[in-house]
Write a structure and sequence with these properties.
The complex is a heterodimer of chains A (557) and B (313).
Chain A: H1 31-59, H2 70-104, H3 113-132, H4 163-191, H5 204-236, H6 249-283, H7 290-304, H8 319-331, H9 333-347, H10 356-379, H11 381-387, H12 391-421, H13 427-445, H14 448-453, H15 468-498
Helix pairs in contact in A: 1-2, 1-3, 1-15, 2-3, 2-4, 2-6, 2-12, 3-4, 4-5, 5-6, 5-7, 6-7, 6-9, 6-10, 6-12, 7-9, 10-12, 10-13, 12-13, 13-15
Chain B: H1 3-29, H2 40-73, H3 91-119, E1 157-164, E2 167-172, E3 177-179, E4 182-185, E5 190-196, E6 201-205, E7 210-214, E8 220-224, E9 230-236, E10 248-254, H4 256-268, E11 272-273, H5 277-286, E12 304-305
Parallel strand pairs in B: 1-5, 4-10
Antiparallel strand pairs in B: 1-2, 2-3, 5-8, 6-7, 6-9, 9-10, 11-12
Classes of the chains: A mainly alpha (557), B alpha+beta (313).
Protein name (chain B): Cytochrome c oxidase subunit 2
GO molecular function, one term (chain B): copper ion binding
GO cellular component, one term (chain B): plasma membrane
Chain lengths: 557, 313
């Protein structure tokens, strides 16, 4: 499709009509529309999962099970984990990647636009399946987001259509959607980079998405297969994992974790990519050790495939297996540490501006270091024998999932909001949001560590009275976190509707996405850019492309 | 060398020394975050944990200090929109911060491996039963003179453990009694045979630092050595359904004499039904007209055992 117009001074002087809101409810094949569809849908489910968390923390204010029935509590923690993972983190990151990757590599769209749209529209289907499980007899799945058999096979109502079946269908469909997305991203990144953009001229966000989507390709089939086999055990009585029929329940754990461990790297790698994009902009310095950071993303993807048994140290695995996976798990901290040091090296000696995206990225980085340290503790078999399945693990992974992933997502949303919507957000409310979220996260999840060390188990609706103090603190933090989303929602909605118009490059950043208008035109680029320099060229006066207007540093109009 | 460089190096070294001492202090505090050390294994695990806390604190404080320093002193001036220095990397620094973590990882892995082998908790899949696990010093919790006995001086005490939804039953096959409270003799290694009647459960005693999932369809060997006399808690660590949080049993570590007395007392009692929290709660909620929850797997009947413990949480 051609977009015939008079070139009156480059990409950035276009002011295309903003996309009509109805387009976001259609089967659009434009990666930018799909990206925003993913982001908006996933954020709604983030709030749903958040409400479930508020209910859980409400119950845990007191030691007794006195707020809701135990079956309701078990359904809540199962659905909290499931919704947060399959309907918030994965879709939001895919949405962000969808929006940014084609622009960052100088392409007009993804390799397979219709496959892209199809993959998105499966997400509301997954959402509807999971939400409808509250209405079926027996309620939603109550076996945790892991769905370990034999508990997940118990089906107290005896109905064929029950919460666990709907859960398994939802997870299988989510797997298909993700595999479709993975095929699309890997193909796009390999085949559709603009002329001049070799692999080592790609922005690190693209490297991160590339590594993450490769993991999806090799890992998801195992989860999908495990879910299908479990579904057969549950509905027709096969004996894959059901010990009554001769199956091995620990085998399910292998199928589950073979994907679900690398899955956490699928989640964290794009966040690392976001940090790598944000720190240079707000320090005005190149990313420290760009090539090494790029390679470490791929290395993490490779090593992530051989650590899964660290979730099964006490499951009934033999000693040699525990120790082998302990070594591989500890080893993954090396490329991860390299990135952390590289980010510190990036901001060190720069010209730092503490804007909202920078605050979220810095807060996310500090909380990630803490999470990484508790992760090393967990990787040690003797330590994990003590704290496995306690709140220590819950504290660890929430520092990662909220402290790093969600904070990183907020950083990304604020940073690219002007590009996506053509509007500026309110910086003051952004800072309020940051401080409430930072304090709330630490208040909510730090107390979980002493609780776990003292032996408080996870997934319990009631606990021994000696654990009350830390639980009250954690619940206060949770309610604060819940409140912290309000300034964000308010800021985004009001700014999107009525914010100051955004120039092409409000942050004076270097990157292909900053050379086009805010929001971009449908085809992204008038002319496909020809790349001539490496990314993050702060402090040099090298143009990024040979043909586009390379500097949009002045405020347009 | 100019003064600025010397001052900077001095400041960094001072900060480094301060962080080192602070990390060591925090490492010492970490023992207080853990439950009392009631088994021979506990000490080894707590020492490993303290080691990891020390190193972790050092890394966290160091990285956070660097970030905070930058955020405070490397800020752009208010109207300065120009770029910072074009520094793309530093090979020496990158080699250092790759090599040191690799060495740390190898150190931590080796230390963890040694602890694992020493505690010898077993678990499934052991092709040969080690009749001589490495001896562990006992009774390190007491402040007075320790006996220097090791865990191998006496034969293993064998106890069978059955987990079901939602109760624990302990059988002492040599004495032919059953109980819902786990009594153990101090300073003697125990061997448990763990079984489940229905779903996955987890055998976990925080004070001992030991845990093992129980897999239905198998009997799993598990060993450890309780040392400190007292009352502790056994909980079900692997999610096992509706009333999983109620599955707690008391663990009583007694002197060998008191333990023998208890065994005889239990043998003299005829089996009665033990109080069971899951069964009690189920009976209360399922008699009501309005159900506030969803349908659940009903709890198994309360276990009928010789010795009925206090099941109050």
């Amino acid at each position: 499709m051609t977009n015939i117009s008079l070139n009156l001074g480059g990409e950035s002087n276009h002011h295309p009509t903003p996309t009509h809101w109805k387009t976001y409810f259609t089967f659009s094949t434009d990666h930018k529309v799909i990206g925003i569809q993913y982001l908006a849908t996933s954020f709604i489910f983030f709030l749903v999962g958040g409400i479930f968390a508020m209910i859980l923390r409400g119950e845990l204010v007191t030691p007794e099970s006195d707020l809701i029935d135990r079956t309701v509590y078990n359904g809540m923690f199962t659905m909290h984990g499931t919704v947060m993972l399959f309907l918030w983190t994965f879709p939001s990151l895919v949405g962000l990647a969808n929006y940014l990757v084609p622009i960052m590599i100088g392409a007009r769209d993804m390799a397979f636009p219709r496959l892209n749209a199809a993959a998105f529209w499966m997400v509301p289907v997954v959402g509807i399946l999971l939400m409808s499980s509250f209405a079926v007899p027996g309620g939603p799945a109550q076996a945790g987001w892991w769905a370990y058999p034999p508990v997940s096979l118990q089906n107290p109502t005896g109905n064929l259509i029950n919460g666990q079946v709907l859960w398994l269908l939802a997870v299988a469909i989510s797997g298909v959607s993700s595999i479709m997305g993975a095929v699309n991203f890997v193909t796009t990144i390999v085949k559709m980079r603009a002329p001049g953009m070799g692999f080592f001229k790609m922005p690190l966000f693209v490297w991160a998405v590339f590594s993450a989507q490769i993991i999806q390709l090799f890992g998801l089939p195992a989860l999908t297969a495990g879910a299908v086999m479990l579904l057969f055990d549950l509905t027709v009585g096969t004996g894959f994992f059901n010990p009554i029929n001769g199956g091995n329940p620990v085998m399910f754990q292998h199928y589950f974790w073979f994907y679900s461990h690398p899955a956490v790297y699928v989640i964290i790698l794009p966040i690392f990519g976001i940090f790598s994009e944000i720190f240079p902009v707000y320090s005005r310095k190149p990313l420290f050790g760009y090539k090494v950071v790029a390679i470490s993303s791929m290395l993490i993807a490779v090593v992530s495939a051989i650590v899964w048994v660290h979730h099964m140290y006490v499951s009934g695995t033999p000693g040699w297996m525990r120790l082998l996976f302990m070594l591989t798990t500890m080893f993954v901290s090396v490329p991860t540490g390299i990135k952390v040091f590289a980010w510190v090296g990036t901001i060190w000696g720069g010209k730092i501006k503490l804007t909202t995206p920078m605050l979220f990225a810095l807060g996310g980085l500090i909380m990630f270091v803490f999470a990484g340290i508790t992760g090393i503790m967990l990787s040690s078999v003797p330590i994990d024998v003590h704290v496995n399945n306690t709140y220590f693990v819950v504290g660890h992974f929430h520092y990662v999932l909220y402290g790093t992933v969600t904070m990183g997502m907020y950083a990304a949303i604020y940073h690219w909001f002007p590009k996506m919507t053509g509007r500026m957000f309110n910086e003051g409310w952004g800072r309020v949001h940051f401080w409430l979220a930072f304090i709330g996260t630490n208040l909510n999840f730090l107390p979980m560590h002493p609780l776990g060390l003292q032996g408080m188990l996870r997934r319990v609706a009631s606990y021994a009275p000696e654990y009350t103090f830390w639980n009250i603190l954690a619940s206060l933090g949770a309610f604060l976190l819940g409140m912290s989303t309000l300034p964000f929602i308010f800021n985004i909605l009001v700014s999107w509707l009525d914010g100051e118009k955004a120039p092409p490059n409000p942050w004076r950043a270097i990157g292909l996405e900053w050379l086009i208008s805010s929001p971009p035109s449908v085809e992204n680029f008038e002319e496909i850019p020809i790349i001539i320099s490496e990314p993050y060229g702060y402090g040099k006066s090298e143009p990024l492309t040979a043909n586009l207007e390379n500097s949009t540093m002045e405020m347009v109009e | 060398m100019n003064i600025r460089l010397i001052v900077n190096i001095f400041l960094v070294m001072t900060l480094g020394i301060f962080i080192t001492f602070l990390s060591i202090f925090i490492g010492k505090q970490s023992y207080s975050w853990l439950p009392p050390q009631a088994a021979a294994e506990s000490h080894l695990i707590d020492n490993l944990f303290s080691f990891l806390v020390t190193i972790g604190a050092f890394i966290f404080l160091g990285v956070t200090a660097a970030i905070l320093y930058s955020v405070l002193f490397h800020r752009a001036r208010i109207y300065d929109f120009t770029d910072g220095p074009h520094i793309e990397g530093n090979i020496t620094l990158e080699i250092i911060w790759t090599a040191i973590p690799i060495m740390l990882v190898l150190w931590i892995a080796t230390y963890s491996y040694q602890v694992y082998e020493t505690i010898g908790i077993q678990g499934p899949g052991h092709l040969l039963h080690l009749h001589n696990p490495l001896p562990i010093q006992l009774s390190l919790g007491k402040k007075e003179q320790e006996p220097t006995a090791t865990s191998l001086d006496k034969p293993l005490e064998n106890i069978d453990v059955v987990a079901k939804q939602w109760a624990w039953i302990f059988s002492y096959p040599q004495q032919g009694i059953t109980s819902t409270e786990l009594h153990l003799p101090s300073n003697q290694r125990v061997h448990l045979a763990l079984q489940s009647e229905d779903v996955l459960h987890g055998f976990y005693i925080p004070a001992f630092r030991v845990k093992q999932d129980i897999v239905p369809g198998k009997t799993i060997d598990f060993e450890f050595t309780p040392t400190l006399i007292g009352k502790y808690s056994l909980t079900d660590s692997q999610y096992s359904g509706t009333y999983f949080a109620t599955m707690e049993a008391k663990v009583i570590v007694q002197s060998p004499e008191d333990y023998d007395k208890w065994l005889k007392k239990a043998a003299s009692q005829s089996p009665t039904a033990a109080p069971n929290q899951a069964a009690t709660e189920y009976a209360q909620t399922h008699n009501k007209n309005i159900q506030l929850g969803w349908k659940t797997v009903p709890p198994a009947a309360p276990p009928v055992v010789n010795f009925v413990g206090d099941s109050h949480l």
